[in-house]
Amino acid sequence: MMIGIPKETHPGEQRVAIIPATVDRLVKKGAQIAIESGLGTTIGFSDENYIAAGAKIQTDRRTLLRTCDIILRVRKPPLEEIKQFKKDCIHVSFLDPLNEKTLVEELAKNKISAVSMEMIPRTTRAQKMDALSSQANLAGYVAVILAAERLNKIFPMMMTPAGTIIPTKVFIIGAGVAGLQAIATAKRLGARIEAFDTRPVVEEQVKSLGAKFVKIDLGETSQTKDGYAKALSTEQLEKQRQGMARVCAQSDVVITTAQLFGRKAPIVLTKDMIAQMKSGSIIVDMAVESGGNVEGSKLNEEIITSNGARILGLGNLPSRVAFHASQMYSNNLCAFIEEFWDKEQKIFQLKLDDDIFKNALVTYNGSIMLKTT
Questions:
Q1: Sign of torsion, CA 291 296 298 303?
Q2: N or C: less crowded end of the chain, CB within 10 Å?
């Protein structure tokens, strides 16, 4: 069974789907691996590194796509490439299927078995395959580093002969995977941290990382079975903004991580709230790719507001640490392949009755299998 990995074509994408160490693992299980020449150049791996691990090098992308039984990649496939896939091919990548109706329809039309890595359930058994969490973890780290680099202050407290420097105040909005890593990173840099989440259940996690949990009475709130925060009502959103405005005004750095799975991100930081912030303060909108948490933020732009606050709307944060992002994603893919690999026949099995597989399977045999609830 041939597994193929093409180079990423999305502008600015530095990550790769498979690293040589993963190739070695899969080859030892009986898989054949073919990669597009130059796959690993963005993270320092040569074709020779992949050959040494057991991969074959393909210089013609079209040949790779039409001859492989399984295609692994980071990003969704370009629409024009789908017709080039081998009949009954299995395609595994991030697909954003709830927002990519045309893409999903095209995959079904061409009878591709498409697996979306976003749809891997958050269960104990699937934890090692959870690419959404592995990449969000790194994004939380990068968000803090970007803020620290742009802030005109240092993060830690320092007592020196020239005087005492008070620690930077960082406010993290949203304590999911990305938010918790942002808290941990800011804490390691010596900042004083406050954090808020609509889910009271995460308060202990926030405190365990050394941050103060900001309590705002929103009434009844809840989360999905996979641990994602559910959308707030208009009234709850307004209460949340009022409660956060004071904290934002006192903060040097504000990082927003609030996202709703498969839906537009909510606005949690309005222009009025930003207007109360300090000159020189930094706002990192980690949800900018899904609509943005910060009013006025723009994808891949840095904006200086009239009061001197800086809004960072930089997208694809994991790609800024592409080596480790690729390493983690490659391990996620490998765990997924291994879970459904038949050791005797040395083939990947489509286990349609398996909870993990049926949750992540978007299209199969010409039908759309996507669950929207």
A1: negative
A2: C
